[in-house]
Amino acid sequence: MRTRHVTQRLRSLRARVCRDERGFTLVEVLFAAGLCLVAIMATISTLEYSQKLVTHSERRELAVHRAEQEIERVLALPFNTVALKTTPTSSTNEDDPAFYYNAGKYQWDQGPTGPRSDTVVVDATGALQTKTSWNDGRGRTAGWVHRYVTEVADPCCPTAPKAKRVTVAVTIADSGADAPRAPVLLSTIVTPKS
Questions:
Q1: Domain tally for the chain?
Q2: Containing domain of residue 42, as a range?
């Protein structure tokens, strides 16, 4: 008996709902469409921003690889040829690595522990150009490779031959918003082979 009563109530309720054909009002439809539009715009904005971050990271990574290649090339050179062919020029632009060159010295420590600088090694028979252009080979990213070679004295052994600090700064020439502004800096010490 109780089951029959519940079944009759459900049929009655379903009949009332099915007879009611009001649907959605225009305001409700517009509100739902507005919410969907906001959600779609937020998704597009997030995707666009993440694409810019990926592009920035890719360009930065290309610059790091280029700097590593240059350091490896310098390490393969004979010690007596690790020198700049010409004297570097200075710059007033703080984003330019040449900003840290002044009066024959290069400030290789540009961080919070600096500034520390050493005398630049220039020799007409040196193997290194001060500044050359580079690109990724696909036409997407290009820039400049800056090289600085400075003398380094060993504080423990003042009579030992001086070593050379090679600093490579790779910049990206693109001026777009997704281009890294700060150069990639890598530095290494080259010692005479015994």
A1: 1
A2: 31-190
